[in-house]
Amino acid sequence: MKLPIFSAFKSLRPIVWRLTAVLLTLVCCTAAFGQSDIQQQIDSIKQLIDRYDQQDSIRQSAKERGVLMMTYYNNFMNDQYMAEVDDQLEWLEMNGQWNVYYLVRGFEVQTLIHMDKLQKATREASALKKHAQQRHDEGGLALAYLGMADIYSASGLYREASIHYRKALSLPKKMSLYYVVLDNAYIMQAIALLQLNHHEELLQHCKEWEAWLRTGIVGDDDFFYCRLSNCESLRAQALTKLGRYGEAERCLRHSEEYTAKVHKSGLTTIANYNLLLSRCTYFLAHRQAQEAMACLDSMNVLLPPENDISEERAAALIMLGRGEEGAAMYKQLLTEKDSTFTRNMNKQLDELNTLYHVDELQMQNKLERNRFAIVIVVIVALAIIIFITFRYFAVRRMARLKAKSERMETELRVAHDIQMGMVPQ
């Protein structure tokens, strides 16, 4: 999962945790297809949509449309998602399928984040929030808050991210699609709190997270134990940072027990990776560099990185007396951090420039429409003025003619009376 501008000097690896956060939708939306070919899944879903449309089964068609979009999302088919999202949203809105509508729209924001289009993602999240507020739809509002939180998180603004994750978590938990929001919000809020070093708050958050998991809302056993393992791993990291090593060790044991109950390969990989990351943090806190290095090596086997560079490995090298290698790795991390920041800033500037030109074009079109409207108004106003003027002069002319006619009648009457007076009686 691509998220820009993450600090290189954090013990947590947010990209891996963000990948973990998407797995609930992966389990819920694609479980029916198992490990079959992705294109075959997509073709099967589209056939179901066509069948349900022919049968006028709106709810089933809406459900499959949601599954289709989630399949694109979970398989990082960002261009395909963006190519179809407007048509799907139009159909869902026209047929009043609001749960799926908001879910698809919420993951449109997530897709834009993955494409590093944070400005456009912000616009879409704001529009989603406004739409949900107008309809008083708490599910849509929760997805909007989640989208804004992920935008802040992707920008490294963890305080703002944490505020919005809390907003998403604070809404009533009765919506049918809300478990998707909750799952993402719980794990990403934990990451934000860890990044902020709010360890006591993180412990309380993990307690609430575990209680939610144990309500049974996550029906898949493998995913349930994977999430419990994630929760215990993060709790262990917080306890390690607080120096409460005995409790941290118990949490790591619990995480290991839960991980052993996960059997699906993808979930097993994620659970083991996160457990190893937490163990590495624990070993570094105890200055057990060899054990920490072993954890890092095992992590690289599970999910091979582009390069074997991390703050944890640099710290372990220094503890092992290999200070020159550790210092060189820290220097490389700083360089990569600067280059990553520069690349992402350039991307954001490009996006802002594109949005600026789009806005400018829209403004020009609006001005042209306004000019046309003004011309029409002026023409109508002139016509009214001309009509009123002609009518005014016509009324005056009629008044003059009437007055002249009355004078002539009066003069004729007088002349007639004079003439009649001259006639002999």
Overview of the structural elements:
It is built from 17 helices and no strands. It has helices at 14-21, 23-30, 38-54, 58-74, 78-94, 98-114, 118-135, 138-154, 158-170, 178-195, 199-213, 221-241, 245-260, 265-285, 289-302, 311-319, 323-422. Helix 5 (78-94) packs antiparallel against helix 6, helix 9 packs antiparallel against helix 10 and helix 14 (265-285) runs antiparallel to helix 15. The relative contact order is 0.07.
Please state the average pLDDT score.
80
Structural class category: mainly alpha
How would the global form be characterised?
elongated
The CA-CA distance between the termini, in Å, is: 126 Å
Number of helices: 17
Share in helix: over 70%
Low-pLDDT parts are 1-35
Largest sheet: none
- SSE order: HHHHHHHHHHHHHHHHH
DSSP strand count: 0
**Which percent band covers the strand fraction?**
under 5%
Rg is: 36 Å
List key phrases describing it.
single chain; 425 residues; mainly alpha; 0% strand; elongated; disordered N terminus
Provide a short characterization of the protein structure.
By secondary structure, this protein is mainly alpha-helical.
Outline the secondary-structure elements.
Layout: H1 14-21, H2 23-30, H3 38-54, H4 58-74, H5 78-94, H6 98-114, H7 118-135, H8 138-154, H9 158-170, H10 178-195, H11 199-213, H12 221-241, H13 245-260, H14 265-285, H15 289-302, H16 311-319, H17 323-422
Helix pairs in contact: 1-10, 1-14, 2-4, 3-4, 4-5, 4-6, 5-6, 6-7, 6-8, 7-8, 8-9, 8-10, 9-10, 10-11, 10-12, 11-12, 12-13, 12-14, 13-14, 14-15, 15-16, 16-17
